[in-house]
Amino acid sequence: MGETEIIIEPGKQDIVFKKVFDAPRDIVFRALTDPSLVPSYWGPAEYETTVEVMEPRPGGRWRYLQRGPEGEFGFHGVYHEVTPERIVQTSEFEGAPGHVALETAMLEERDGKTHYTAVSLAGSVEERDAVVASGMEGGARELYDRLETLVEELAKQPA
Amino acid sequence: MGETEIIIEPGKQDIVFKKVFDAPRDIVFRALTDPSLVPSYWGPAEYETTVEVMEPRPGGRWRYLQRGPEGEFGFHGVYHEVTPERIVQTSEFEGAPGHVALETAMLEERDGKTHYTAVSLAGSVEERDAVVASGMEGGARELYDRLETLVEELAKQPA
User: Is the distance from CB of A32 to CB of A146 less than 8 angstroms?
Assistant: First the structure.
């Protein structure tokens, strides 16, 4: 597994995630935008994720349901931009309504590898810090490791 | 004209706008969400604003064109949430593509007046400071004064 770099600077409102995938960009983009693939990596493995709606285009909506030991939680948002270079979307955890984050994923291909950078921007430093305190870091590492496994499987399949 | 309070704290990524409108919330909400009313207040008076698309509902898109002495510029985004209490949307100035802001407008009615608070959240402190340096403050005061004029006119009309 490649390392997931997570950058949390004090006093800032964002969290930055960086990862290098050993696959071309179109494969990583497909993993991020194909609704049938999302449940295999989104969220911690012990939770079951269902894609209720996912329309990866400007103005499209998304809503995922996550079922775990504590019950079922919804997450939803809308897409502002969806291109192989950039995905910009809003995100709201329905367990804490009213806190909307702006998430930007940037994908850059170099020498057959995809350099992925995602920025999650919270409404305030306090909201950002609450997300960090909730144990987000472990969940995010698990998500990106699972995404990496999926990307490697997709890369092995005949085109 | 009521004062528009603009809060720009050093090192932060957002700009906060506060204004009290002497009208019930449904009138302010109507002014903010009726496409036919937007050109009368959006942007500086010397520019002509055209609403190309405006779908004020979750997943709806918006795009305004502003024509002025320097030519025509587009602004666009998508709506995450639209209720009389809260409008959450993304916003991108097409003259500087790639810089997406998250804009939240909160409307609270007290004693027949509407207390309006808007937060514009930029992708970084540098992006926020560039917006401030561009003379945003004067433009915003003009926008909110024009919006106030419109709201007062709407409030005078028979229901």
Answer: no
- DSSP assignment of B70-121 equals TEEEEEEEEEEEE-SSEEEEEEEETTSTT-EEEEEEEEEEETTEEEEEEEEE
Closest CA to B2 of B153, B117, B148: B148
Between A59, A81, A121, which is nearest B121 by CB?
A121
Q: Are strands A48-54 and A113-121 parallel, antiparallel or unpaired?
A: unpaired
CB A73 within 8 A of CB A93: yes
Q: Which residue in A has a C-alpha nearest to residue B54's C-alpha?
A: A59
Reported as a single tens digit per residue, the pLDDT across B24-50 is: 999 999 999 999 999 999 988 888 999
Q: Shortest CA distance to A126 belongs to which of B12, B90, B89, B131? A: B12
Which residues of A fall within a CB distance of 8 Å from B88? 90, 100
Cα B152 vs. chain centroid, distance in angstroms? 17
Q: Comparing C-alpha atoms, which of B115, B103, B123 is closest to residue B62?
A: B103
Calculate how close chain A gets to B159, using CA atoms only, in Å: 31
> Please, are residues A105 and A86 in contact by the beta-carbon 8 Å criterion?
yes
pLDDT, tens digit, 9 for 90 and up, residues A18-71: 999 999 999 999 999 999 999 999 988 888 999 999 999 999 999 999 998 889
ipTM of the complex: 0.90
3-state secondary structure at position A94: coil
Token digits for A117?
Answer: 């950078």
Cα separation, A149 vs A152, in Å, equals 5
